[in-house]
């Protein structure tokens, strides 16, 4: 795996802009039925600085998509934010009025979904769908909206936008549809772009192009990125910082390059060992045994303990707390791999 | 858009055997009814001679297949025979009644939309909550009430008690026609709306949970703009085909309702013709109704294609 810090110098926060863009504190998302709560996302906290790219990695059901949907206010029916706060430039989105929230969605915060086929309205031309947000939030006329749609389609690398602006989603390929999604999300020049596995549904050959385009457009617009994926290679390519989620909790976070080069949590280690690595073609893949726990039935101790090769008795009785070491890396594990933190702490 | 409608001519050609089949069935069925048309026209006190003379005049003496062939060739010439009861060309009688029934059905469809879309939307917003439960209960009640009874109740309430609407008839000016047809159309719409609401409610729930509605919300849309631009058309697509299927029932229902409200439409002509054993009129009305239903089903297909850009019918060519 290539461990270069992709364009990090470009993405360093602007020193003049010291306020945090997004500040998530002890977020809990789940189902509430009467007085019983079922937690899907359990005490997640992280910050995103302006113009940075933050990745959330985890298996299906780890709560990464739910975290993202909570930020966007698009939690599926039945689920809700149980506690915690999501502060966007100081405004708590959890307690904000729906109208305030709607005002932010588009010009401030935008979202890209995993499946570009189902995320676009099948019965409306894509140009109209791109222009819809800007027309609503920026008050553009129909003509200006069309012009902006054409411009954005050009920016996202859609060939022949003049013809395609009238196309319906089913007339476009998956890659083009995802480009339309990106054009749509960035049309209002948001400050924060939430991406839910935006390249998972695409062919590998197209994935790379779309990621490159997404990165350069975000840099141009000045948008920070929160990027949810299960694909470590994509995170490594795209994100400066990452958090690894397991069973609704963050188990490890830090600089992408450092975490992937030197994972401290056994789960992160397991993820890396189970993913193919083209730099070491001969290496055998080591799967993580077992399955993640169901949300209704999480073990009392560390949720990963039943699958962990390093687990000791302590792991089954108490849940490890996420602790930050002096090198700005956090990990929630009693048996974290040896590192600077244990030496210096 | 036009190139996606090239299935229409083919569909029209397909309709020809359907209409022919209808004429065949109805022609023979009406001859199997007990009773003699000549006797029915002349009454109980007619002499056998006069009955026989009339049978001769009406061509009822000819073999039945000759009557049918004769009938078909006349249709092609626009001649549907002479009504026994009205003593006028049947074509005139029917052509006078067609616009009345068409207006009634169109008005009923419009009212059906006006009733169903808001109620289904309301129910789908929060499934299993109070508004949804009320709408579903109304649906059940609506489905349980016979059409003619609803018509009579509406007449009693709005016609007799409140005197807002006439109790029956058709009026003289176009505006009056609409006014007179409102109650009967409402009756038909009430009968049709439970089906429409049920279909629209469930498809709206599906659409509201879809990814593209989440996308629309992520653009800051909500409420009516969201509903109008991203929900209604998508959830309406399956409903259009269901309403299209029920259109034939609607025409059937209008026969009874026209009688209840004394409206001079196809239904009234049909019922009178059946009572009088007026064969030419029965045949003509059935033929026209079959034609209307066929055209309506083609129009349903057209609407389906117009609403859903993904659909292309009958050509086998994906555009």
Automatic annotation (TrEMBL), chain B:
Pfam families: BPD_transp_1, BPD_transp_1_N. Residues 98-300 form the ABC transmembrane type-1 domain. The keyword Cell membrane applies. The chain crosses the membrane at residues 12-33, 102-125, 146-165, 177-197, 284-307. It is found in: Cell membrane. CDD domains: TM_PBP2. Signal peptide: none annotated. It is a multi-pass membrane protein. This is ABC transporter permease. It comes from Flexivirga endophytica.
């Amino acid at each position: 795996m290539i461990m270069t810090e992709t364009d990090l110098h470009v993405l360093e926060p602007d020193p003049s802009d010291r306020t945090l863009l997004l500040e998530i504190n002890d977020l809990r998302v789940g189902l509430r039925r009467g007085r019983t709560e079922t937690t899907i996302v359990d005490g997640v906290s992280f910050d995103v600085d302006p113009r940075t790219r933050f990745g959330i990695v985890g298996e299906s059901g780890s709560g990464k998509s739910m975290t993202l949907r909570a930020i966007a206010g698009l939690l599926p029916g039945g689920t809700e934010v149980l506690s915690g706060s999501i502060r966007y430039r100081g405004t708590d989105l959890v307690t904000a009025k729906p109208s305030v929230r709607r005002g932010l969605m588009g010009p401030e915060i935008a979202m890209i979904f995993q499946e570009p086929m189902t995320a676009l309205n099948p019965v409306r031309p894509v140009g109209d769908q791109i222009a819809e947000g800007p027309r609503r939030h920026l008050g553009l006329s129909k003509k200006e909206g069309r012009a902006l749609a054409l411009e954005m389609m050009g920016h996202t690398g859609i060939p022949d936008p003049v013809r395609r602006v009238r196309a319906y989603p089913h007339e476009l390929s998956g890659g083009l549809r995802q480009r339309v999604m990106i054009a749509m999300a960035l049309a209002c020049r948001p400050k924060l772009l939430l991406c839910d596995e935006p390249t998972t549904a695409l062919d590998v050959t197209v994935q790379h192009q779309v990621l490159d385009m997404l990165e350069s457009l975000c840099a141009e617009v000045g948008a920070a990125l929160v990027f949810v994926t299960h694909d470590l290679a994509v995170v490594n390519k795209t994100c400066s910082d990452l958090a690894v989620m397991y069973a609704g909790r963050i188990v490890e976070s830090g600089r992408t390059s450092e975490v992937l080069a030197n994972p401290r949590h056994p789960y992160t280690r397991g993820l890396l060992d189970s993913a193919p690595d083209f730099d070491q073609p001969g290496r055998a893949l080591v799967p993580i045994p077992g399955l993640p726990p169901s949300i209704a039935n999480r073990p009392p101790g560390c949720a990963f303990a039943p699958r962990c090769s390093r687990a000791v008795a302590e792991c089954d009785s108490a849940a490890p707390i996420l602790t930050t070491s002096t090198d700005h890396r956090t990990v929630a594990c009693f048996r974290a791999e040896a590192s600077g933190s244990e030496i210096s702490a | 858009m036009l190139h996606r409608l090239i299935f229409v001519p083919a569909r029209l050609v397909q309709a020809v055997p359907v209409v022919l089949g209808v004429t065949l069935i109805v022609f023979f069925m009406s001859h199997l009814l007990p009773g003699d048309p000549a006797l029915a026209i002349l009454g109980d006190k007619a002499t056998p001679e006069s009955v026989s003379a009339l049978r001769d005049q009406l061509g009822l003496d000819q073999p039945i297949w000759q009557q049918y062939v004769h009938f078909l060739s006349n249709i092609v010439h626009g001649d549907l025979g002479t009504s026994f009861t009205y003593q006028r060309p049947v074509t005139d009688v029917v052509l006078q009644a067609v616009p009345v029934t068409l207006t009634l059905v169109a008005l009923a469809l419009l009212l059906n939309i006006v009733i169903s879309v808001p109620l289904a939307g309301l129910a789908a917003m929060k499934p299993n909550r109070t508004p949804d439960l009320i709408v579903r209960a109304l649906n059940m009640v609506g489905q349980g009430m016979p059409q003619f009874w609803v018509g009579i109740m509406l007449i009693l309430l709005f016609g007799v008690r409140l005197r807002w609407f006439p109790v029956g008839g058709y009026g003289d000016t176009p505006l009056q026609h609409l006014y007179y047809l409102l109650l009967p159309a409402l009756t038909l719409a009430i009968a049709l709306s439970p089906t429409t609401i049920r279909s629209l409610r469930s498809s709206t729930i599906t659409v509201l949970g879809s990814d593209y509605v989440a996308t629309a919300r992520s653009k800051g849309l909500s409420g009516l703009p969201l509903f109008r631009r991203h929900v209604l058309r998508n959830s309406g697509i399956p409903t259009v085909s269901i309403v299209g299927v029920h259109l034939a029932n609607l025409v059937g229902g209008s026969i009874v309702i026209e009688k209840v409200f004394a409206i001079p439409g196809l239904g009234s002509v049909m019922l009178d013709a059946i009572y009088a054993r007026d064969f030419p009129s029965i045949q003509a009305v059935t033929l026209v109704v079959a034609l209307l239903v066929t055209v309506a089903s083609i129009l349903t297909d057209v609407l389906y294609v117009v609403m859903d850009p993904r659909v292309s019918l009958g050509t086998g060519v994906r555009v």
